[in-house]
Amino acid sequence: MSLKDFFIELSENQFLNNNAKKYGLKLGAQSVVAGTSIPEVIESIKELNALGISCTVDNLGEFVYDKAEATAAKEQILAVIDAIHESGVDAHISLKPSQLGLDIEYDFCFNNLKEIVALADTYDIFVNFDMENYDRLQPSFDLLKELSQDHDNIGTVIQAYFFRAEEDIEKFKNYRLRIVKGAYKEPSHVAYQTKEEINQNYIQLLEYHLLNGKFTSIATHDHNVINHIKQFIKDNNIPHNKYEFQMLYGFRRDMQVALAKEGYNFCTYVPFGQDWYGYFMRRLAERPQNMELIVKQVFNK
Ligand code: FAD
């Protein structure tokens, strides 16, 4: 088993996920998770805003199989939206449908999402539906389509490792889209497996949406992709208000600040909350060098 598969399996382990919630931020997670409470995350956002960086806030949590837990997550996200509005910070919301009941019942999840999207809409706050693994892809697109009949403050993610990504991006080009390589382990009948194939499709999708789409969030830490896309944007005179760069909180901070200083719109994905374990393990799967973060954290105590 590769190190990547090992960390992905750990990220999906229900027992470890549940136990991690009880013990606060551990294993160095505090360097990539902006606290466990709403006041803490608002403070982190203010610091990033002061550097000219906007934020998308993720109340950590996924794969919820209990209605009470999904309802509690919904309440927490509503409270985050109120806090963003009241504090006046430059931030929007990212959420995972599986935290809000996608695996329990479609209509239950729809109603939870509707409440969130409607409140955010009253404050003119954008809500991004993060994309999870393949089984949740089509129902998440269905939810997005149904909700967009009444609201236009929503968008989603296209994962470049999926064969169907090209078709999906065409269907959803009139939405604000975050384009990523893809973070889950997917089988070879639905997804590209090699870095080369994924990178190639990633660049193609980014270029397509930059030329034809509503708004593109270029979400990657890959400097080769970023340099290529900067040149593409220049060559094609893509206006600044049609795209932004995105990276995760705690990763390549110097590059985040540098891109914002160069005048690019930049948005940091800011996760917070008790349910940090699955998110953190996926970051280790993507790049085992992220273990450095753990080591630094341990020795800085
Ligand atoms: P990689 O392919 O991991 O790395 C490419 C190269 O970039 C590396 O070889 C290295 O040279 C350099 N590099 C990368 N990271 C670092 C670093 N920390 N320090 C130094 N060099 C580095 N996935 C989903 O499936 N669904 C989502 O909804 C989703 N949302 C996301 C939101 C944001 C804002 C971001 C940034 C990612 C999101 N992802 C999501 C994860 C994404 O799919 C990738 O798994 C993740 O971004 C890793 O790919 P990468 O393009 O950043 O770079």
From TrEMBL:
Record-linked Gene3D superfamilies = 3.20.20.220
Please list which residues make up the signal peptide. Answer: none
Enzyme Commission code(s) on record: 1.5.5.2
Domain Proline dehydrogenase: where? 42-288
Functional pathway: Amino-acid degradation; L-proline degradation into L-glutamate; L-glutamate from L-proline: step 1/2
Q: Looking at the record's lineage, which domain of life comes first?
A: Bacteria
Q: Which reaction does it catalyse?
A: L-proline + a quinone = (S)-1-pyrroline-5-carboxylate + a quinol + H(+)
SUPFAM superfamilies cross-referenced by the UniProt entry: FAD-linked oxidoreductase
Q: What Pfam families does the database record attribute to this sequence?
A: Pro_dh
**Protein keywords:** FAD, Flavoprotein, Nucleotide-binding, Oxidoreductase, Proline metabolism
The protein's required cofactor(s) are namely: FAD
Q: Which InterPro entries match?
A: FAD-linked_oxidoreductase-like (IPR029041), PRODH_bac_arc (IPR008219), Proline_DH_dom (IPR002872), Proline_oxidase (IPR015659)
User: PANTHER family recorded for this chain?
Assistant: PROLINE DEHYDROGENASE 1, MITOCHONDRIAL, PROLINE OXIDASE
What this protein is called in its record is proline dehydrogenase
- Protein species of origin: Viridibacillus soli
What lineage does UniProt assign to this protein's organism? Bacteria, Bacillati, Bacillota, Bacilli, Bacillales
